[in-house]
Amino acid sequence: MRDHELPEVRRLPLFRNMLAENFESLMRASYAQTFPAQLEMVRQGDPADLLHIVVEGAVELFSEWNGHQSTMAVVRPVGSFILAACIKDQPYLMSARTMARTRIILVPASDIRSVFRRDMEFAVSCMNELAGCYRAVVRHAKALKLRNSHERIAAYLYRQSRYAGDVATFTLTVEKRLLASYLGMTAENLSRALKALEADGVKVDGSRVIITDREKLKAIARPDYLIDGPDWDGSTSGVALPFPRNEEG
Amino acid sequence: MRDHELPEVRRLPLFRNMLAENFESLMRASYAQTFPAQLEMVRQGDPADLLHIVVEGAVELFSEWNGHQSTMAVVRPVGSFILAACIKDQPYLMSARTMARTRIILVPASDIRSVFRRDMEFAVSCMNELAGCYRAVVRHAKALKLRNSHERIAAYLYRQSRYAGDVATFTLTVEKRLLASYLGMTAENLSRALKALEADGVKVDGSRVIITDREKLKAIARPDYLIDGPDWDGSTSGVALPFPRNEEG
DNA sequence: CTCTCAGTTTGATATTTATCAATTCAAATT
DNA sequence: AATTTGAATTGATAAATATCAAACTGAGAG
Fold first, then answer.
1. A53 and A132: one domain?
2. Surface-to-core class of residue B91, CB atoms within 10 Å of its CB (0-12 exposed, 13-18 middle, 19+ buried)
3. How many contacts (CB atoms, under 8 Å) link A and B?
């Protein structure tokens, strides 16, 4: 593992409150690995041996059934996945593949489980992380069940704009087909819906998004604190698409 | 609180491993209350002051947006909800209403938080509960995104039959409109789909379900361990519809 | 026993969403 | 600059799902 990586991992909400001694012991049991792009590193159904921490690159979490795939989340540095399976010692429910060349730290699940039993702060951090993940998926499920595709897209774009600092212009952080899959629709549907939304205050040109009428977009999106968040205390990783960067900063 | 209730609550996976002393202290801070049927006890967005434990009756967890509602889960005795909001000290993401006259034990969230900090076994139980809830919602989201309505229904019926002990006949545990909402479709769609499924090995008459051709139904449902579970260690409450009772037992 | 009422089913229709095929586009490579 | 390749878009169509209204049903109330 590289020198600069350890402090970064230590800064993760999951690890920042635990005793230094326990953190070090966890990290001694861990190892880092770099994967090329488009590699399926974890297959759904695999035993949950290792907690994964993304240090560089990006990872898509997706699930598969009957030949279809669906994107469930994207994890970027420095985020972790998938804690729940490690804690329960159960198989992964989702697969993971790199979206680019990606560096991962792998922490043995058994060490996770033994360390949180002797470090209350770590246990509390795990709980917060899990509770955050749970709430994020509940939000995702709510969006899928309560909104139609136009509304989901509008809400997504509105939220991205908000989180980038209420900017009028930003860039999509992921490919459209991945976004479509995350939002629970086909790429064709997303494409057509984006065009239709031009009448509702948002113009998308390639990966560039321009909000022409914030209020109109908001009227379609009807953003809701209990669906679109944030619970945002920075502790929740691996459960939603990443925020866009403010283009001015 | 009634005499027989305490041991029942104590038997919950969430509470069964903690120190007796801490359990008693938690329970001293708690109180029980009986609600009539069809009462909205928790409204989404409310501050999470209290962990709820269902002792008698049944509770529907649902969410609401823009005038639409969607059932997210049903909690039966002795199950708890909603731990995640209490742990994070964040507002509830879902509303809760009684489906029948229901008795609930209410545990102050602040006591939950302070007790798990001094009782590692309780902390571990909370973690297991949360991880289980997380995985259950991930499964729900996977089903919604990967299966169409016929497949979701078929999988639901197949699973209910399995959990009742591979019986050919069982009774639906919830109203059809609630089931429809849980499965992410309209009641009309459910009704028509059930009729269509008669060609695929299952007959539904009122609330009675008769599986006429298990293999045919299975072929439609394509049950999948990573969607339909179980993770079943009994520790997960409040995250899925209840199992049917085997009619022979 | 009849009445009432909520839940369910059915029918007709509209809307939403998916599918498949054909282009277009844009970035990366030769 | 030309070529290649995967992504994105567009068009035509089909399938899935929702909506609205009406009729039906069965369990509980009077």
1. yes
2. middle
3. 152
